[in-house]
Amino acid sequence: MKHLRLLRIFFVLSAITAGTSYLHATTLSASTTTINLTCTIGQACTSNGSGITYSATSSLSVDSGSAPFAISPLSVPWISVTPPSSPVASTTGVNITFSVTSAWTTLNAGLNKTTVTLLSADASNGTSITFNINLLIQEGNATLSVKGGLNTLNPVLYLTGSAAPTLSLTLLSSSGLPVPFTVAVSSTTTPEGATSWLTAGTASGIVYSFGTTISFTTGTAVTGAAPGDQLAGQITITPNGVTANNLVIPVYINVNAGPPTIAASGVTPSKVPLLVTGVAPGYVSFLIKGSGFVSSPPAQKTTVFYGATAAACTNPVLTDYVTVLNSSYIQVQVPYSTTGAPFATAGASAFVIGVANGSSPTLAASTAPITVTAAPIVNGITSASSFIDAAPGTNPTVAPYDIISVFGNNLCPLCSGTSAVLVGAPDTVYFRFPTSLSPDGSHKVTVTFSKPGTPATNLPGYILFATNTQINVVVPGALATLEGTTSPNVGLVNVQVGYDTATPAVNLSAAVPVAYAAVDPGIFTIESSGQGQGAVLDNTTGILNSQTHYADTTTAASTVQIYLTGLGIPDSAGTNATNASSGGSWAAGTFNCLAAIGGAVGSSGNVTAGPGSYMQTLNTPLAYNPISSLEPAYAVPSPLWSSIDGAVLNTSFLNANVFVPCFLGTDTSATNTLTVTIGTSTPTVLTAANGGIAYAGFVPNSIAGLYQIDAVIPESSGTGSVVSYPLTITVGTGGTAVSSQSGVTMWVK
């Protein structure tokens, strides 16, 4: 180890003179008045040929312009000063050197002190400066040690996501005397390729008798390390410049995953069904959203826990049933037994799910409560045609007569086996779908629509089919009457699913708000996914549009039927007259489409005017049914209909040349204009005005809510090759326009 070089300290003796005359008073000054020197017993400071040395020198500088000076007689033999005096003033400065003589070897270890006085030679001044001389005599065999041992920094635990760690250690002197030292650090490349991640806070220092603490910093190389990494480094302390006495301190940083966090409302589903004894063992699947999730290495993989409370969230889910999708999402399957546990107790927070990181956690670091309930659970509502989820933070949109899909769980707990799917069927008299379905003749599945805050305004939905996880239902045509009109429910309608033996159901799901819209167009697709080949038929053959049965426009126009939902309330106003006019053009407004609802109930027997709507037709004692054999036996519904919700629009109730409710082909307003667009870059745009739409309205002999648009594709609209084109339906123009979902296609040649 290199010996501590004796300090060379410079001082300045300043004097102010005018020219070279000594007659003017001159003030002496020095930059320091303390001289520190060090010698180590048994070690050479500066060789004198005998092996015993005296110290190196410490020098001070005299400022230019200083006066002559002299050093007073020295009081100790172990210090010398060169030069002892200066006979003349200096304009360039004079260096004064303090040296420890060989007499220092007679001193004992410890601190020795004396003073040296510098006197001004300027008689008119008489200024003097006293310097304190400190000579530290160190034991020759003084060594250093690390408090806590050389492995005090082995290992250091670092948790991802936290600040880069600052390390420190304390050095001790074996003799209790100050020992000089130097510091060097090195570090290996991290698994991520970063180098030089360890930095010393100081390059050198002195270890005092009470111990000296030195610090080390790390940086982005550490914060960027992955869980499971071990970063290796080394600190080398050299005392007194003697490398043979080096202290080598290993540094290992073990990187562990920091604590994960589950986001607010971050677990889907937030409600799960109550399970009872006798249930077949299975799993409940959850999607957990949060931050800090770890997928590898296996020892660091995020552990999912569950329990009855946050404090008891200590039951780990086997890692085989935990899939860490990324740092923000986890899929997990929580098992349950034949007793239904851990989902056998109902309550708003009867089940708690949590997560923790690290090699062997025993308790969840972040938790979320899950509701366990016997009531139906609604997780989402979409159009049954487009299946487009509402944007985050918004409500699903529905329109009058819309056909929607309600997704969830516990919607029909007894729907299993041969009753796994309950299919609604219209009655055989009025051809109306039911408002409830039952798997056992006792429990009923219902869907109700109501004004927020006023459940008494419930309107039933007419159910097409139901399973334990999905219900397809027709939205009431009077949806607008259910809108909330005060904040925060403006424009909203509540939807609830019931599963109960009582009528009306009291075992209801939470109310799910949906946004009212006049229209919400969505095209049905063959895959029932809202994407791909649309439900499009050839108008002449009735064959499904496909790559082999395309719309051929090579020699003539081609008419296709497009099936969709969400077009809203038809605005036709025709009557079911006995002798309706034949023929007519939908686009010209001479097509005799019935109004959907309205009109008084007709009297029995012949009347001069037919019922004014499809609803009135069903409510009239003498139905205007062309099959006369049915008329005498016909009885009006009881109670009378107030809507056509859920009704199959049976053409056997209509006279010749009378059609089911449709839209006015002459309505070209900004809110109601219908447009069919086929293609993208140079699309074919079809409207009633340009002859491109021949009919738009409800589908005859189908439920009120299924719509049909007859699109007339002009000759030579295709390229001559069979091409799959995008297909879009738009209602309205400009800023009020609403379009069907993207991703629907049809084939055109």
What does this protein look like?
By secondary structure, the protein is mostly beta strands. It folds into 5 domains: 34-138, Immunoglobulins (Immunoglobulin-like); 144-256, Immunoglobulins (Immunoglobulin-like), CATH 2.60.40; 261-373, Immunoglobulin-like; 377-517, Immunoglobulin-like; 532-568 and 665-748, Sandwich (Immunoglobulin-like). The protein is built from 2 helices and 48 strands. The strands form 10 sheets. Strands 28, 31, 32, 33, 36 and 37 form a 6-stranded mixed β-sheet that branches. The chain is elongated and about 145 Å long. Residues 1-25, 47-56 and 604-608 have low confidence and may be disordered.
Task: Give a quick rundown of the structure.
Helices cover 1% and strands 37% of the residues. By secondary structure, the chain is mainly β. It folds into 5 domains: 34-138, Immunoglobulins (Immunoglobulin-like), CATH 2.60.40.10; 144-256, Immunoglobulin-like (Sandwich), CATH 2.60.40.10; 261-373, Immunoglobulin-like, CATH 2.60.40; 377-517, Immunoglobulin-like; 532-568 and 665-748, Immunoglobulin-like.
